[in-house]
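User: I'm writing a tutorial on reading structure tokens. Could you give me a worked example: one chain, its sequence, then its tokens, then a sentence or two explaining what the tokens reveal?
Assistant: Sure. Here is the example chain.
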Amino acid sequence: MRLGLIFIMLILLPVATGVHAWLFCDENLPRLTDEALALLQEAGVRDPVVDIRFFDIEVRGEAPDPTARQKALAAIRGLVPLRLLPGADRLHVTARLTARVEGETLHLQGWLPEGDHRAALRGLMADLRPDLRVQDEGLVSALEVRWPEGFKPPLTADSPMVQPIVEKLRVPAVLRIEATHDALVLRGLLPDEELKYELVAALAEVAGGREVDPSALKASPHVLPAAFAVRGHLAAFVGDFFRLAPPRSFEIGADGIPHLRGRATRQMESHWLTLLRPVTGASRVDAEFELLPSEFHFPGYEVRSELPDGQLAAIRSALQGSEIVFEEGSSRLSPEAQIRLTSLVPALLAAGPALRLVIGAHPDPAGAEAAEKAVGKARALAVLSFLIDQGVPSADISAVVFDPVPEGSPAAPPTPRLIEILVK
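And here are its predicted structure tokens:
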């Protein structure tokens, strides 16, 4: 009897188990599936799919970000009596990139598939904007991250994910060069690497022992094109402008307006504006110059006369205070002027043939330009002729008319109609 009961129970046990399983699947699985779908949707998962087999659950879908994915998986794991086995969490996150600029730093954020994509992106951004430091602590690489549908790595500036960042980072070209007594410093952004090399080479030719520092000048094809970034013409201007003594500076930006600062003569200013015309077109030039009568009046002017230092100092001392003032409209030397010039002759003869002089006339800035040039030239020649008559060799003495300097300027002569003798 007992053996028969045991036999019957062994037969009914699988049947009962099957009935229980059928009742569980029929009544509880739909409810659990709906609960799981609701939890995934609450976490922001798009296109969620739930597959339950008895007590094992598998989920699929696209989470908006890694945090949302973890939230969804935590909710599914808490769904009793189901269990989420390893490999059954098929939720993925689509790769995403964002960027922001704070000061001189570019911050990259988002998530990418596993691999060397993070380093490649950092290198790409450094090439596009070499003026910015690239920080990518906010950029995560993870196994669950997938590329957008249809995308194939590697990341480039033309990639749909990167292009919005690239467009946001495009910047206008700008150039600033500043000359000090020790260095020529270049700063800014250029669209052309070759142009950068041209500028550095042009400055190196006129540096005269000063350091040429281009470390703050970056070049990138990502910089917007600029009308001023013209090869050849810009370097020609820069080399000519910075050959003279500092301080001086040149700056030009997206507006195309050059800003010039430094010392100059009227002729130099006109020459530089001519050199700049192919660079700036019809744009105005913002020039703020301390006007000087000639290059010989520049501080730090290096004389070309090959005289010993002691003899050069003696000649300069003799010439100091030897200015000749003419009567208005006249080019005739007065007796007082002849006496003053005669007193210079011994020192000039003692210097020998190495001495090179310039006799320059200061025109009256208030007078008519043509008339002032004519009478100024006549005055300079009158002084030259008198010195030659006194036996001074004329082989290397020039008679010139200096550029006019507005009255009241630091470099203006003490009085108009002045003749000045300087060592070349």
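What the tokens reveal: Residues 2-27 form the longest helix (26 residues). The chain has four domains: 2-91, 96-169, 174-291, 303-423.
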